[in-house]
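Need tokens for this chain, all 625 residues.
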Amino acid sequence: MFYLNYCYILFVYSFCAGIFTVFIYLHQTADILSAWLLRDFEQPLNLSYDYIVVGAGTAGSLVAARLAEDADVSVLVLEAGGAPSPLFDIPLAAPMLQLTPYDWQYKTEPQSGACFGLNDKVSPWPRGKILGGSGRLNYMVYLRGHRNDYDTWPSDENEHWSYNEVLRYFKKSEKQYGRFKKNTNSHGTAGVMPVSDLLIRSEFSAAVVSAGEELGYGRVDLNSGNATGFMEVQTMTRNGSRFSTDQLLSARNNIRVLTHAHVMRVLLKKGYEAKGVEYWRGGGSHIVKAKKGVILSAGTVATPQILMLSGIGPKKHIQSHKIKSVNNLPVGDNLLDHVTTGLDIITLNSSSPIWHTTMTNPMYALDYFLNSNGPFTSPGCESAALIKTSLAKAADPPDIQIMSFPAGLSTDAGVVLRRAMGFNQLLWKKYFSNLVGKSVGSLLVALLHPKSKGTIRLRSSNPFDPPVINPNYLKHPDDLLTLSKGMEFIDKLIKTKAMRKVNGELNEQPLPGCESFQFATISYWACYVRHMTLTAYHPVGTSKMGLKNDPTAVVDTTLRVRNTNRLFVVDASVMPTLTSGNINSVVLMIAEKAADIIKRIWYLQQAHCHITDILLSPKYSHVIS
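Here are the structure tokens for all 625 residues:
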């Protein structure tokens, strides 16, 4: 009976995923063909624009839209990927966009002390290659982090990045539709990004939050600044559908968006002033100039790659690829990522909106398309928690995040998630496949503030070669210990009365490779973490923001690349540290603040030039003589 059920579920998910994949490739083909066939009818590209924004992801799209609020300003947005389909906005479809043409499909280098359960010890790193960037591939959770995260960020006479300063930019970007919209001290109601309550949730989600209360943690608003505790998540959705900032670009006539435009390098005058970019499109390279500035918003992986291809980065490394070094900076260092673990950690008897019957019931599809409701609106993650383990100090922000999913790797019989996450055959066969057809849940434990740091490096001088990504997962022993402590907390959480009400039980199958350790001991969990080491899709830090005297910094507090002019970085790569939670809302905040900074810098430069012109005029020659 198990085998028949397994085969049925495998068929259902294979069929649905196959249909969606065929649609993705048909859409991509139509998108490329239309761009090629209509190239002669496109509005001619200007020789120059005021601003060039590289990357139409969360940050790039928003900063472009804000700069274009001045009708006299022209903005060109260059995106390497294509345009999305409305079907990509279905929240439940998020995992199916990975390993498609709309994903850069990056992979890390083999990890020496982690990822033992993944193929070749390599972690897949999905990044969005599409209008909207990784904001179209993520799980849409809105979490800002803890106020203490930002109070360690650099501030100087030019800019302040403390929590009290950035809060207004969080509020500026937010349009709160949910249960916190009356709390205007913490939330915004007039921003660009809709933030909504879940339209559908499982019994498991409610049980997890109740279990947290049972252990002494409050049911709180984790976006209030200083909270630890549990909450049902809010998501960046509107009327049940994903919202991404690329939707802002079509609203302004002074923004030109060019898709399938792969930026190869920034053009620098005397290695100092950004004058434009060179990009590849339609089988050839092109050059376009910027009059006011170039803004790199290509993300934590691609932004350092473009900088290094432009001669900005570690001198010896750049020269080893026969690239002229013009600015010796630690580009690509300080790579940080939230490591997570805990898939299929609990078995249940509760219902889930993510089940094979969901995929085959046409009424659910109709409910989504006609009423913007139903299981298709589920983002997967339903509740979140920020907690402190015994390793955290009193003044520290939370060191562990917990994300609950009423499903797991086994839910789709290995059709989508196993391939996307890169699990090897041994772990699938001996651990996950036995759970196919059973109701499972995942309590993902994420390490919020890793001490292990990695690097991004060029593979070659060819801009089309993927960079070398080495996150150095679990290199620092404290990271392994903190995650192991987090798994001990999950064990306690599952044993609460609230979890017993949904028949929640810890999955006591020993993980292959960890059989020699006594189950549920700290040593067992350490082995478990080393095998089931997963990215939470939150890489940051490779163009680190810092003060003038910080030798590890790439950009200053105004997000301008050091030792350059008119070259800015606006994306997650500028984050000096990871925040306590998902990072998309943080990237929104950075983009909002960056737009104000860039506007002000240009205004001050113009004012300075105007005053200089006046002083140099004959009328005031006696003043400076």
